[in-house]
Write a structure and sequence with these properties.
With 416 residues, the protein is of the alpha/beta class. It folds into 2 domains: 194 residues, Periplasmic binding protein-like II (D-Maltodextrin-Binding Protein, domain 2); 197 residues, Periplasmic binding protein-like II (D-Maltodextrin-Binding Protein, domain 2, 3-Layer(aba) Sandwich), CATH 3.40.190. It is 41% helix and 15% strand. It is built from 18 helices and 12 strands. Helix 2 links the parallel strand 2 and strand 3. The longest helix has 19 residues. The two termini are 29 Å apart.
Length: 416
């Protein structure tokens, strides 16, 4: 989502800068041993400064210089082209969502030997980077989860207290309907994003998986899926669930909420810097996501470091990945504002007791990680297209679900 706005879990802003890279062919063998090239995506200036500081600590500890390669747009396309051209970086950012494709292709180095304290990580964060062979191909560096954000001033003006906001999804939808009638024109009771990355945990809460690692999927025959999504469709039809962009002209939920045009939103912790800095005058409270079918649920978006098999300085890449997912993690997390993947770092930073960050941290214990096999990108795209048609009442929900299954199965079959 910014640091995750574009895809709900990670920002890849388009920019004219392109790829700032050091040509590997220009390095001598000796220079390669003293230099490690690391590919990262473009993000906020704060995150880039945090990376530089943590990288400087790595250089101080090892004597190895870090050459940062910032890919400002179409990160995975650029990375795949570099693998195809046999010129990968020595280490790279890897989103858990994209990991299965690279793992299956066999281009990544197993990293089990670089991690001797597995219990310090939430198991589902590690699982996002495990291949079918059980080996680990990425070391988690940070993660984000979704939580419910409330504007207490708007609630008060409408005659409600935050304590009156239901903690279950069905109750929350009914509350949004009642709240909308008391809000000024142009102010939304609730903001809703329509991509699968926001809703997979809710669709599977207390029920069977709707997406399988082998590309299998089951939306249309699952009554739980239909009940949940129908409530979103009904909320759109009843004008109490708003799309930030289509209905309010905001490029992401944080802008709509931060400008006082929404009373509630379900958003990731990447929104916190904007709420604290860009929209400091707007009050907000954070709670864990609403339960679905009586089960706690949220999504987690995890990012790690991977090392290509064909890296020119493989040893340096391994040392860098180990450092940044270990000794350097607290520096990175503190300066970037991200959630550290290690429980020990989380505890040392006191994040669980922070009233705004704590609900996000609590969600890590039960979160569904946004990673589910090589077919997930295809399913995600088709879900977005199909559910958007249902959400905007262009296609009946049942038909939209059948269509997304049919198209996804055909495209996954072609990919295999």
């Amino acid at each position: 989502m910014n640091t995750t706005r574009a895809a709900p879990w990670r920002s890849r802003r388009a920019a004219t800068m392109g790829l700032l890279a050091l040509a590997a062919s220009a390095c001598t063998p000796a220079a390669q041993e003293d230099t490690v090239t690391v590919a990262i995506w473009g993000s906020s200036p704060g995150e880039l400064r945090a990376f530089d500081t943590a990288a400087a600590a790595f250089t101080s500890a090892t004597g190895i210089k870090v050459v940062k390669q910032v890919i400002e747009d179409k990160y995975m396309d650029v990375i795949k082209s570099r693998f195809a051209g046999r010129r990968p970086p020595d280490a790279l950012y890897l989103d858990g969502f994209e990991a299965p494709v690279l793992i299956k292709s066999g281009v990544l180095e197993p990293l089990d030997a670089e991690l001797d304290d597995v219990a310090d990580f939430h198991p589902q964060l590690l699982a996002a980077f495990r291949g079918e062979d059980g080996k680990l191909y990425g070391l988690p560096k940070d993660y984000s989860t979704l939580a419910l954000y409330l504007n207490p001033a708007l609630l008060k003006a409408a005659g409600f207290k935050p304590a009156q906001v239901p903690r279950d999804f069905t109750g929350l939808m009914d509350f949004a309907r009642r709240l909308q009638a008391r809000l000024p024109r142009g102010v939304a009771a609730m903001l809703i994003e329509k991509d699968l990355a926001r809703h997979l945990a809710a669709l599977e809460a207390g029920g069977p998986p709707v997406v399988l690692p082998d590309g299998g999927l089951d939306f249309s025959a699952n009554p739980q899926v239909r009940r949940y999504l129908q409530q979103l469709v009904d909320g759109r039809a009843g004008n109490y669930l708003y799309s930030p962009k289509e209905d309010l002209g905001a490029d992401w939920p944080g802008a709509a909420f931060g400008s006082g045009r929404a009373a509630m939103m379900m958003e990731g912790n990447w929104v916190l810097p904007a709420l604290r800095q860009d929209y400091a005058g707007v009050p907000f409270l954070v709670r864990e996501m609403p339960t679905v079918n009586g089960k706690p649920q949220t999504m987690a978006f995890v990012v790690g470091y991977a090392v290509p098999r064909g890296a020119r300085n493989r040893a340096g890449g391994l040392r860098f990945a180990r450092f940044m997912s270990g000794a350097g993690m607290r520096t990175w997390a503190t300066l970037s504002g991200t959630l550290p993947a290690r429980r020990s770092v989380e505890a040392a930073m006191g994040l669980a007791s922070d009233p705004t960050v704590g609900p996000h941290v609590a969600g890590a214990a039960y979160a569904t990680v946004w990673s589910r096999g090589p077919g997930l990108p295809i399913i995600n795209t088709n879900f977005g297209n199909g559910f958007l048609a249902a959400f905007n009442r262009r296609t009946p929900l049942d038909q939209a679900l059948r269509d997304l299954e049919r198209v996804s199965r055909r495209e996954i079959e072609r990919q295999q």
